[in-house]
Structure formats: structure tokens, C-alpha cells
Amino acid sequence: MGRRRPPDILRKSHAHTEGKARAKARQQLRQSLDATLMPDERALLIDLDGVVYRGDEVIAGAAEALAWLAAERVPRLFVTNTTSRPREALVEKLAGFGIAVDVDDIQAPADAAAAWLAARGVARLLLAVPAPTARAFAGFDTLTPDQAIDRQRDQVSGTAPAIVDAVVVGDIGASWNFERLNAAFRCLMQAPQPKLIALGMTRYWHAPDGLRLDTAPFVSALAHASGAEPVVLGKPSPEFFAAALERLEVPAARSWMIGDDIRTDVAGAQAAGLKAILVRTGKFRPADLTLGIEPELTIDSLADLPRAWAGHA
Ligand SMILES: [Mg+2]
Fold it and tell me: Which of 13, 112, 181, 268 could be joined to 243 by an S-S link, Cβ 3.0–4.6 Å?
């Protein structure tokens, strides 16, 4: 952090009795400490929904706490499992709350997946993802499920060479049908077997008309039938947290995650080697604290972070 606790020699100030030379030496020592202490500082990954805002309402004091982080120059990245809206829409939403962030200050499953795939030289993708999410894969050679169906029409032998190097699955909900799911399955049965990439592993969600299947059941069906082991890019997967830390260029050991989901945020971050802060906003329920998952810190809301961190060096 920008304002860190100096060693005793610097805190016992007798500046009024000091000669200029001594004061200058102190100043130099302070500057060199500023430089050398950097690696010990904290970095923070911040969940959005339930921590910064809830639906369309900002969490009270969140904007001020984030301004404090910026003033303290704490490296931070917003990490969300949202795939229904592009990052640009999240930037706009945050701006509406008086919180200024860049697109690159946010990591969502699609851009984490794009970075993960690019780093591995993967070029050809079958994209079963919502339209706003597809943009993140603009740099790849992509097929939609319907295009894959066309390409597979002549491949009846079952041993055709792979037409893609990865099958990327997000929450396309009602756009799934048997033919499209089967096209993704057929891609995974070709050789060499494409990677199976899941944009999160949420099982279901609460839509206005009731519960709806999310991404996980379809990924599971594809994995079960093809034998492919899915790579999950979304919380709580270690790959997702690793991608975030890579982006911030900080090690897990000095990184913290703040979230409202005891499993996805807290347990997920701890499994990836980070410390975790649970907030009592968003989806938090008191029963979450009886699950045997122990956050390093539990605070009422993001607004309490400055005070909580000051007493928890
Ligand atoms: Mg949340």
C-alpha cells in the first residue's frame, strides 16, 4: 500500500532537533524503503455483484472504499463470472455509480479464456457462448454451433480430423438444442481431441420465470460423453485466479480476494493460495459461516475494508 508502516527508526520523529544532513539521510532511507518494500504489499481481487453493487444499486460506501484503494495504490482487479454482459457494459454500470474503471481492470470468464487459449497457441474455436461474450474471442478463427453442424455434414465416419482446437461453452440457455449440443460433442470426438473450456461452472440460476439450467449441466454432458476434462475459466477455478494474478503480476501469497460467495470467492481464492475476505452483503447468509470455510477476514461490507485492513497488516 502507498501508506505503509515505517520501521521504528522512521516513526520516532525528532525532526525539530535534527540537522539537515540527518534529515536528508532519513529521507533517503525512507525513499529506498518505499522501493524495497513494494514486493510485500497487498493486491486485491474484487468480486462485483454483491460486493460493489447488488443488482442496479451500489453498495453503500463501496465507491469511497475503492477510491481509498486507488489512493493507496493497491493493485486491484475486478473478477466476475458474468458472461451475459460484455466488460464494456460493466465499466458503464460502474461509472454510473461514480466508480471509474477501465475494461482491463475487469476479468470475466470470456477474456480469461481468450488469454488462456492464446497463451497455448490455440487458434480454432467452436464458440457456444452468448453474443456479448463472443467479442472476447475476436482474435480467433471461430465457428458457431450451426456452422459446425454444416461442416460435420460430410463427416459420418466419426474419425474425422478435428475442425476446431477447443470447444468453448458459456450460458447460451434456450439457444441449446440437440443438434447444437451434439455438434459440440462431435467436435470433441475428433482427433486430436479439442480442449473443452467452460466459462464458469454455475449449475443453475434464478430467472424471473423460475430456475433455469446454466452452463455446468451442458459442460458436464459434453465431458461425460466425450471423456474430455473441462478447463473451467471462472471462479472458483484455480486457472481463473491464476490468470487474474498473472494480469496483476503479483504472487498469490500477497494477494487477497474479497467476495460475498463463501464457496466461489472465499474457498476458491484460498484454494488458489490467496487470503480471502467475506462481506456480509449480496448473497451472504449467516449459515455460510458454518460450512467449515474460514475467511481470513469477515466484514459487513466493502465500505469497512480500509479500517479492517489497517488493523490487519
Ligand atoms: Mg458476488
Answer: 112
The phi, psi pair for 115, rounded to 5°, reads -65, -40
Res. 241 pLDDT band, cuts 50 70 90: very high
pLDDT at 62 over 60: yes
| Whether pLDDT at 159 is above 80 | no
CA distance 73 to 250: 14
Instruction: Using the mean position of ligand 1's atoms as its centre, give its distance from the Cα of residue 288 in Å.
Output: 14
Determine contact, residues 78/53, Cβ cutoff 8 Å: no
Which pLDDT tens digit goes with each residue over 105-131?
Answer: 999 999 999 999 999 999 999 999 998
* Cα-to-centroid distance, 162 and ligand 1 (Å): 37
What is the band of 35 on the pLDDT scale with cuts at 50, 70, 90?
very low
Q: What is the CATH number of domain 31-108+252-284+292-310?
A: 3.40.50.1000
Q: Where are the domains of the chain?
A: 31-108+252-284+292-310, 123-232
pLDDT of 220 above 90: yes
Alpha-carbon distance of 300 to 53, in angstroms, equals 14
CA of 258 relative to ligand 1 center, distance in Å? 9
Residue with cell 471462472: 234
CA of 185 to the centre of ligand 1 (A): 31
Secondary structure E strands in 86-171: 106-107, 124-128, 141-143, 166-169
How many angstroms does the Cα of residue 206 sit away from the middle of ligand 1?
A: 14
- 311: CA distance to ligand 1 center in Å? 25
- The answer to whether domain 31-108+252-284+292-310 and domain 123-232 are alike in fold is yes
- Around ion ligand 1, residues with a beta carbon closer than 5 Å are 47, 49-50, 260
**Looking at domain 123-232, which CATH architecture does it have?**
3-Layer(aba) Sandwich (3.40)
Average pLDDT, the chain: 87
Nearest-angstrom CA–CA distance, 256 and 299: 14
